[in-house]
């Protein structure tokens, strides 16, 4: 298995393909039906299927896709190489969320706000990716 096959794009494409195949066999849905039922645009579904994306899919869309198709969102997050964030011992109602810095809350809100331009979201994600992967120089 090559590195390209193990990319988040390839893994997520396989996840989406399985979910759509299940929807086709269980409900007789087409890709257009899946798009309508999940609230994810048809072109986005096709991009996910092709693994044709640079920035990670919007997590709200991934959650909506999973919810409408009754597939675990944690499986989608794992396919994307993200922690699934779904503790198994607690129900959603009982889950205690860790405190989040006000600045981080603003960033998360902007990334999920449909009124924020995609270009701005891309800038935010690019900066976060840069900060997450930069080499920190140590004094001394």
TrEMBL record:
| Organism annotation | Plantactinospora alkalitolerans
Its domain of life? Answer: Bacteria
Q: What is this protein called?
A: Helix-turn-helix transcriptional regulator
| Family annotation (CDD domains) | HTH_XRE (cd00093)
Matching entries from SMART domains are given as: HTH_XRE
Specify one Pfam family: HTH_23
Q: Which residues form the HTH cro/C1-type domain?
A: 19-76
């Amino acid at each position: 298995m090559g590195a390209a096959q193990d990319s988040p794009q390839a893994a997520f494409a396989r996840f989406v393909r399985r979910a759509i195949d299940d929807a086709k066999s269980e409900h007789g849905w087409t890709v257009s039906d899946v798009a309508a039922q999940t609230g994810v645009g048809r072109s986005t579904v096709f991009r996910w299927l092709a693994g044709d994306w640079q920035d990670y899919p919007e997590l709200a869309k991934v959650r909506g896709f999973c919810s409408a198709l009754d597939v675990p969102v944690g499986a989608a997050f794992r396919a994307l190489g993200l922690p699934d964030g779904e503790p198994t011992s607690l129900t959603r109602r009982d889950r205690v969320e860790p405190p989040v810095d006000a600045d981080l809350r603003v960033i998360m809100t902007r990334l999920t706000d449909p009124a924020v331009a995609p270009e701005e979201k891309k800038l935010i994600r690019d900066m976060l990716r840069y900060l997450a992967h930069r080499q920190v120089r140590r004094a001394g």
